[in-house]
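BUG: 3D viewer hangs when loading the predicted structure for this chain

Environment: internal workstation, default settings.
Expected: structure renders.
Actual: progress bar stalls at 90%.

Input used:
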Amino acid sequence: MGIYLDGVYISRTTGGVFDTVDLQQVEVLRGPQGTLFGKNTVGGAILLTSKKPGDELGGYLQATTGRFDRIDVKTALDVPLSDELSTRWSFASLNRDGYVTSLLDGTEYGNINSLSARFAMNWRPADAVEVDLSLDWTRKREESSGTTLLAVDPGTFDGGGNLVSGISAFVNNVFFPPALSDPDQFTFDSRWITGDPYTNFADGSRSKSDLDLFGVGATIAVSAADWLDIKSITAFRMADSDNDRDGDASPTVILHPATRIDQQQFSQELQFSGNAANGRVNWLVGGFFLYEDINFFAPVDIAFVYIDNSAIVTTESWAGFAQASFDLFDGLSITPGMRYTYETKTNEPIIITTGPDFFNPVGPPPGTVLLIDDASASFDEFTPAVSIDYRWSDALLTYASWSKGFKSGGFSQRIAFPRAESPSFNPEKVSSWEVGFKFDGFDRRFRLNAAAFLANYTDLQVVVFNQVEPLNENAGEARIKGIELEATFVASHFLTLSGGFGYTDAKYTEVRDPRALLSLDDELAYTPEWTGNVSAVLNYPVERLKGDIIGRVDWSYRSEVYFDALNTPELLQEAYSLVNLNIGYENIDWGLKILVGATNLTNEKYIIAGFADLITSSLVDATFARPREWYLTVKKSL
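Structure tokens produced before the viewer hung:
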């Protein structure tokens, strides 16, 4: 799933953790993308669009308080400098205490401490030219996410006396605690499982989640002729992240991973679009270039070996794409598209052991070189697409589409055992089909959209933990099919109802895991079979209050889902429902809005991420979502 901010592709996950101060809209596109814009994506795209500067002086100030000492402040101000030039200044400060507490030292994990700002400029030097310039900045200084232990293996032996799992715990318990005055405190076993998703025994000195983001982008749109528009999108972004955590949630050293990433990216996109045949043909041709440079450092301390992982990773991506829509006759359109992508990736790792200081028979001695390599790989792919739609009336549209998607291969970074060359993985490919309809009738008071989809993946990329190493592997082939239905009903002038549901049947059709860790019986991670949602929005005018009573209630459902590829039982999240609601008052003439609400009203305890490696790391842990929280928001428009 690709993330775009104002048309700019965000190439790294850490670069997508920004607080967008001034969002105008969010679009979610399903299936392979790449014939219309930007970087190719294999499973969809999220398009974030910020608000443009207004032509009049104005803005807003918003403050929120709530549970966990929440204090959020957001503000934005439009400042027009002339008839042709407008600017918008935005700022946000988000602060909230953590919700997971260490019983060892009182550290509160999962807190929020973020500052972000954005400057946008819109310049219209001529009727046919528009220039948008933006700068955004985000700074986070937070504790690590709050994980809690779910399972521990202190060492398991087979009938022949061979240690088969719980390696880290066994090495630690045999060689480290006996040398200390208080060995029980540093023995790793089930004593550190609290049974409470909001507590652990983690060491707060190994807690850090720092992030600095900066981006600048310029979009130039020129209407060169009645039949031709030209758009250029140029952007530079950088992200510096520093993360550390006590992965074993105990006083001893079983698994302490850290990650430091210094990333920079430059992208340039050029689009030519227009129409022909009296508007019956709409076309677009474009080109895209991306260069990314990453300085990667990921030290990890395991009971039997301490490792410094470092690498310089670069990506260079070139692409050309085109799409055209042909109105064959009234109501019927066909839209073919195509893309060619060429990417080159380089990986220069230096991986060496640095400890531990005490003797153990499992790990290599400090100073052992595990990997020094200078690897590179190139990938290219042609990905076509075609769709056809027919408008039966102003209210009903039906469509069908087929497309191919491609995600390039690469290299795994975290290595724990000696290797002659960097472990690599191949590109992932998908063929995707979709049929559906969109109905908008009864004086536009009722909207119903439905879609059925089928996606066949080859060389599916999954992350499998095998003896500590999180390796990217091509698991084999998978098929994902399902249906989605969503509806909106304007019940009255003050009440709108909406809802939807989805069914997904996902399974492996072929497994090619050389280590036989995966099987055809495993379920795809992060893929629930059933999802559903219902919401009601109220906007009721009250003359005596000189304003409107506003409110919203949302209910959502998600069936059971695994949070790792190997379907570890402890990381199976059972089905759950969530309820969020708010109610308040709004007076448009005064520019005033007041809201009081709650999230996770029923206080559901559910997993949002997890890690499982009982064989080597000797543990399973998980991060649970935030509990029930109330909030009060006051917004004043200027």
